[in-house]
Specification:
Layout lengths: L29 E5 L11 E5 L3 E9 L5 H21 L8 E7 H7 L2 E2 L10 E2 L8 H7 L25 E2 L4 E7 L2 H12 L9 E10 L10 H9 L52 E10 L1 H7 L4 H8 L20 H11 L4 H5 L9 E2 L5 E2 L7 E2 L2 E3 L6 E2 L14 E8 L2 H11 L2 E2 L2 E2 L15 E11 L15
Parallel strand pairs: 7-19
Antiparallel strand pairs: 1-2, 3-8, 3-9, 4-8, 4-19, 5-6, 9-15, 10-16, 10-19, 11-12, 13-16, 14-16, 17-18
Length: 477
């Protein structure tokens, strides 16, 4: 039924070109021009990427012996299943886009040593020395720091009462499935994790996370409004009908998403050591977390007026016409954010991060692409959910599973290094390398933090497509 609740986007004709090496890039993605309400219009001036309607994430532990023979057999078995899936569905929104990401526990436990020499590593290279190096963070901290780091908590992280501390997860693998068709996503999930699928027996699923985004770009009621109302979520009546997400504002403005392959490990000079010939070249890192969203606090208690919500979501001092949910204000420097705090005793969500998540000067990539100052680096892939906190969990007690629906967000972001994510997330809380804004991180004056409650976090490495199946297993002796 849910496949009939929103009009599928009018995607460009798929040419049948082979999938790109960058797993995180959504091929054949549509960019449309929308008006201030976030609806496609011939008079629209804001470019917006149209995300897939449906997103699922499956996390798992491996159910494979930790030896070379078993892992190499599993590598071939899983890659065969992925190829079968691509033959059934193109790797696009009208088919199924699949992204396979690997957590530190996989590398630590299953790849303790690279036993064979290659063009990438010397025989005997031990964990974590074969992982990409974060050159920027290493320089700042005076020690070797890798592009993939363990997840950490942040000043504004505060789970719901009684939940306990944020769960820093330890999954071996996470698979992101994206499509405009929920039926396609379910079919793909069955191919990779079903009992009769080709990859059967490789994984012990730890969670299944469902979500959705958009559906209202053409003027009809979007999935966030429809599904929240159907589930009886408190505050659902205040969600703008056409909105892309529960909080109303468009989140996939083209200018706020990293263009091309900028989020690759190797694209920007001096970020990692993967240029020109790293094993993980054309890969990236991924952050995955779950947050509850308090819609009553957002629409009624903390920000009852539209102007209040603009200040919290973007930055104080703006005055767009009421009902404007897609607009592009100029980015703010750290000094301008601090100046806004002095004037308004508040800062906005996107404004606080705009200096930290973008190029600080004109930059030419290792591929010869010129990026002007202020070009966004990360690519967001977050989507709303009614999971509480997951659709399925293998640990209902530890994850505080409930069948009661709840407004939430499965947050996904791709960036060259975990260090970049950490700096951006700290800026969201008003913490910069050289200053801390004088506002409590969960204050209603600190962006949208007061309506978010984080429950889970983990970071992953997304290899290039050619190494997506059990990376490095081929080098085990």
């Amino acid at each position: 039924m849910i496949d009939t609740m929103a009009q599928p986007p009018d995607r460009p004709t798929f040419t049948g070109s082979p999938p790109v090496q960058e797993q995180y890039i959504l091929q054949n993605e549509q960019v449309i021009m929308v008006d201030g309400a976030g609806v496609q219009s011939s008079k629209g001036t804001i470019a917006v990427r149209v995300p897939t309607l449906h997103d699922h994430v499956v996390t798992a532990k491996l159910d494979v012996p930790a030896n070379a023979k078993a892992l190499q057999e599993a590598q071939h078995q899983f890659e065969s299943a992925l190829l079968d899936l691509e033959r059934q569905f193109p790797s696009t929104p009208t088919g199924v886009a699949t992204t396979v990401a690997w957590g530190l526990p996989y590398f630590r436990h299953y790849i303790p040593t690279v036993g064979k020499s290659s063009n990438f590593f010397k025989a005997g290279t031990r964990y974590p020395e074969y992982l990409p190096v974060d050159l920027v963070t290493s320089k700042n901290e005076g020690r070797t720091v890798y592009a993939l780091q363990e997840a950490r908590t942040f000043p504004s992280d505060q789970p719901p009462p009684g939940f306990g501390p944020v769960r820093l997860e330890q999954n071996d693998v996470a698979v992101l499935l994206r499509s405009d068709s929920l039926a396609n996503v379910k079919a793909a999930q069955n191919v990779l994790f079903g009992t009769g699928g080709k990859a059967s027996g490789l994984f012990k699923v730890t969670s299944i996370r469902y979500g959705f985004s958009g559906g209202g770009f053409y003027g009809q009621q979007g999935l966030p409004s429809k599904l929240a109302l159907a589930a009886g979520i408190p505050g659902a009546k205040s969600i703008p009908q056409q909105s892309q997400g529960f909080l109303g504002f468009a989140t996939t403005l083209d200018s706020n998403m990293g263009p091309g392959v900028i989020a690759n490990l190797e694209t920007l000079p001096g970020i990692t050591d993967q240029w020109p010939n790293g094993y993980f070249k054309q890969g990236t890192t991924m952050h995955l977390s779950h947050l509850f969203q308090d819609l009553v606090a957002w629409y009624e208690q903390n920000y009852p007026e539209y102007a209040d919500r603009v200040q919290a979501m973007v930055q104080p001092g703006l005055s767009p016409a009421p009902g404007t949910y897609a607009f592009q204000p100029p980015g703010q420097s750290e000094a301008e954010v601090a100046q806004g705090v002095k004037r308004y005793h508040a800062y906005g969500h996107t404004g606080s991060m705009s200096q930290v998540d973008s190029t600080t000067s004109s930059t030419t990539s290792n591929y010869g692409k010129a990026y002007p100052t202020g070009t966004t680096i990360p690519v967001r892939g977050d989507f709303d959910t009614l999971d509480n906190p997951f659709h399925y969990t293998s640990d209902p007690t530890g994850d505080h599973y409930s069948e009661k629906k709840a407004a939430g967000l499965h947050f996904i972001q791709f960036q060259p290094t975990t260090g970049i994510f950490n700096r951006v997330r700290l800026a969201m809380d008003g913490h910069y390398p050289d200053r801390t804004l004088p506002i409590a991180p969960r204050s209603p004056h600190a962006g949208i933090n007061s309506v978010l409650r984080t429950t889970h976090r983990q970071n992953y490495l997304v290899p290039p497509r050619r190494h997506r199946s059990f990376p490095l297993a081929e080098f085990l002796a």
